Amino acid sequence: MKTRKIPMRKCVACQEMKPKKELVRVVRSPEGEVFVDRTGKKSGRGAYLCNQASCFALAKKKGSLSNQLKAPVTDEVFSELEKGVL
């Protein structure tokens, strides 16, 4: 049997490459709305974060998530990310 290729993505906060399934996707929709995409399949520009509170805090501090999505990210999105970790 062939081994399947595992898609890798980079965390925008810590810059580590990890399998796509281990990361959380945040999306900016075509309408400009920013939200957390738990399925990983919504349309729009996406950015990935490790599923750790330290990466969420680092992305908020550096503004790397806003830069990647080219849109402002509200505190509500970060609080939703932190709720998903716990």
UniProtKB/TrEMBL annotation:
Highest taxon in the source lineage: Bacteria
Protein name, per record: YlxR family protein
Database matches in NCBIfam families: RNA_bind_RnpM
InterPro entries according to UniProt: YlxR, YlxR-like_sf, YlxR_dom
Gene3D superfamilies: YlxR-like
Domain YlxR: 9-83
UniProt xrefs under Pfam families: YlxR
